[in-house]
């Protein structure tokens, strides 16, 4: 038998250099594919920008500014994502498009669960922009918030409240909640209740108040303002005044203030009573001889033509002792 000679021991530095040499050769072999993939992504990025700007301008000319912004951003993102997938196939020719698509199918499920709220708000925002129940500049009420619509984004609707604050409401909440659009129509009706005394004539008061409201600047002549008897309260007759103004919040608030002032002046000039609730308190220093008798006791008011006699709570002797006199025997 011939002796087995062990393989020569290689220097670790030589192994590292060999690996780097192989990697550099592979890199230079793939360099044209890498450059082609980068160029393709850059071209797709520029094309996506051009398409997005075209969509934005097209919708802007149609008055759909917010919808154009959302759709342009969405189309740009899809173009860039598709270009990255194609570039990966260019850089790595061994990767098949079917493998990438199948991987995306599995990953999209996980992404859908992870970003459920974001996707829900995105879909709700697109539906709101397509259906357009309200527009930028409209004054709306959503849940407990009221203000002017500033912007409709892909995720949320931004409104500016009347006291100068911004509220960001998710589009899914807006889409699934009742929304009051105060400026959906050019004019809007307001109302105010005023009470007059029972000694006044309600029909005459309605005529006087309606004339006073019609003379207020900013109140619409058609439909004409009206004042209607609306209720019988404890101490006054309720009259409801109704009038129409421009639907902007500023007009509604300022004109209502002028209408209330006109109603007050008209009532004062016509000597119409504007009563306020009063409370009467009765103090009794006497009780009856039948106190304690449930069958005869009355609660401080006369009972029939012959009420039981009253008696003082303190006897005459108690009164004398209270003032320092000796009670009589």
Distance between the termini: 158 Å
Assembly context of the chains:
single chain
Q: Which class of secondary structure composition applies to the elements?
A: alpha+beta
Proportion of beta-strand residues? 15-25%
Largest sheet: 5 strands, antiparallel
Low-confidence stretches: 315-324
Please state the average pLDDT score: 77
Helical element count?
A: 8
Strand order of the largest sheet: 4-3-2-1-5
Helical content class: 40-55%
Tell me the number of strands: 10
Q: Radius of gyration, rounded?
A: 43 Å
* Shape annotation: elongated
Order of helices and strands: HHHHEEEEHEEHEEHEEH
Structural overview:
- With 329 residues, this protein is α+β, with helices and mostly antiparallel strands.
- 48% of the residues lie in helices and 18% in strands.
- The chain is built from eight helices and ten strands.
- It has helices spanning 12-61, 65-91, 97-114, 116-131, 171-176, 202-214, 249-269, 316-322; strands spanning 139-142, 145-152, 156-161, 166-170, 179-181, 187-196, 226-232, 237-246, 286-288, 310-312.
- It has a five-stranded antiparallel β-sheet.
- A hairpin with a 4-residue loop joins β7 (226-232) and β8.
- α1 (12-61) packs antiparallel against α2 and α2 crosses α4.
- It is elongated, with a radius of gyration of 43 Å.
- Residues 315-324 have low confidence and may be disordered.
